[in-house]
Amino acid sequence: MFGAGFVVAPSPMLRIWWAHGGASGPIAPGLARGLGARDAALGLGILAAVLRRKSSRGWLLAAAGADAADLVLTLTHAYPFGRRTELVTLAGIALYVLLEIYLAVDQED
Q1: What's the pLDDT tens digit per position in 65-79?
Q2: Total domain count for the chain?
Q3: Distance from CA of residue 90 to its chain's centroid?
Q4: Which of 7, 8, 50, 90 is the most buried (most CB within 10 A)?
C-alpha cells in the first residue's frame, strides 16, 4: 500500500513521513517514487509467489533487507521525527523486518 502511494502521490505521502518540511526539496518526489516502486515490486513479487504456491523466501528476504535499510536511515535520524514518533516507527519497522525474516525462514522448500 505504501509503495503504490509513493508512486502515485509522492508529495502527500512524503508529508506524512516528513511532516516538518523535509520533503520540500526538488529531488524528494523522485526519491519517493523510487522507494515506492521498490516496495511495490517486492510486494507484488511476494504476492505472485504465494498465488503460484511457490516459495516467497527470496522476495521476503529482499523486502527484509530493504526495510532494514529504512530502519538504519531512521536510526541515523535521516527522518526529522519527534521522539515518540521515532520510537514507534523504529519498533514498527524492527517488528516488520523480524516478521519478514521469520516468514522467509519458516517456509519449506
Answers
A1: 888 887 777 666 666
A2: 1
A3: 12
A4: 7
